[in-house]
Amino acid sequence: MVDSYDDSLDTGEKSKSQVKRELHALVDLGERLTTLKPDLLAKLPLTDGMRRALADAPKHTANIARKRHLQFIGKLMRDQDTTAILVLLDQLDASTRQYNERFHNLERWRDRLIAGDDAVLEKFVVDYPDADRQQLRSLIRQAQHEVAQNKPPASSRKIFKYIRELDETQRGLR
After folding, report:
1. What NCBIfam families does the database record attribute to this sequence (predicted)?
2. Helix spans in 78-150 (H)
């Protein structure tokens, strides 16, 4: 006699634990949305009920109330276009990473300029042709003097601000 019992789960149904994982993922996504600023939330494709629930989230400060509200947001997330939301959040994360990378690059420029190598200054002027070499040298000298005197780094901040303004001008952000 041939036994036709098949042990595989090819029925197309999700297991209970898979459904739970997906629901927890929706709650986590909803919790992430509660941390976004209103102008960023306005860019997301959300229903009015979801927008109200996200606006109400900061009002729930007690742990149990917050947890219950996050569960409610997770329930509302089932009716949302989560793929579009995730794509927009990924773009937001990418732009944040790009901004941080540019910020760190400008900090490295500032630190190398203050280190006092003329070759670095020449390279900077080549990369940023709008830079005022005389003003930059003056700020560098002041920053080096502040470091030698153990004073607060006011000139270092001015250099960074100047470099950031040059970078924004060159990128067309200003």
Report:
1. PRK05255.1-1
2. 82-115, 118-127, 133-148
Largest CA distance in the chain: 96
Query: Predicted confidence band at 102 (pLDDT cuts at 50, 70, 90)?
Result: very high
Q: Which two three-digit tokens encode residue 124?
A: 């900077």
With a CB cutoff of 8 Å and minimum separation 6, the contacts of 5 are: none
Spell out a b/e string for 121-152, using b for 16 or more CB atoms within 10 Å of the CB, else e: beebeeebeebeeeebeebbebbbebeeeeee
Residue 44: the pLDDT is 87
SS3 82: helix
> Which whole number is the average pLDDT over 4-23?
74
CB 159 within 8 A of CB 136: yes
- Helix (H/G/I), strand (E/B), else coil: 150: coil
| Residues above pLDDT 90, as percent of the chain | 41
pTM: 0.60
CA 174 to chain centre: 21
All domains in the chain, ordered by first residue: 16-80 (1.10.60.30), 95-171 (1.10.60.30)
Q: What share of the chain is helix, strand, coil (3-state, %, to 5)?
A: 75, 0, 25
